Amino acid sequence: MFSQTVEYALRAIVHLADQAPNPCTTEQIAKATKVPQAYLSKVLQSLRQSSVVHSQRGIGGGISLVKTPEELSLLEVVNAVDPICRINTCPLGLKGHGANLCPLHRKLDDAMRETETAFAETTLAQILLSSTSSYPLCNEPHERLTQVGGPTIAPSN
């Protein structure tokens, strides 16, 4: 349903959210997310152009989120690299249909609307704080924030 670019962008942003507010290099992000570095560079460029991430050159520089993980939604990330396209009019161009979609295209648009809503309502912080036995992008136990500015603890299993 989603392009590889969206998958790679979400992986990169989840990693940056996990490391926030510290910047990461493209090499560090690529290694942590298992995304080819050349492809990741192009994805990060789109994220920079959409003001999702910010980059700083030099010592102590790197790539970091523009917003906090609590403020950044999954939808903002997706729309920065490959926006969800809703079906507003008949994709077949049938004059009798216009904005009155047939059952197939209505169902497809409903699914896209539900996905769009779910992503708009989900922040990066929620992804990182979800209680599951696995932590995003990690095989081993990981320390993470329990709340904004809170102490770090190992995730509960």
Automatic annotation (TrEMBL):
Cross-referenced InterPro entries: TR_Rrf2-type_CS, Tscrpt_reg_Rrf2, WH-like_DNA-bd_sf, WH_DNA-bd_sf
Gene Ontology MF terms: DNA-binding transcription factor activity
Superkingdom, natural source: Bacteria
GO cellular component: cytosol
This protein's name: Transcriptional regulator
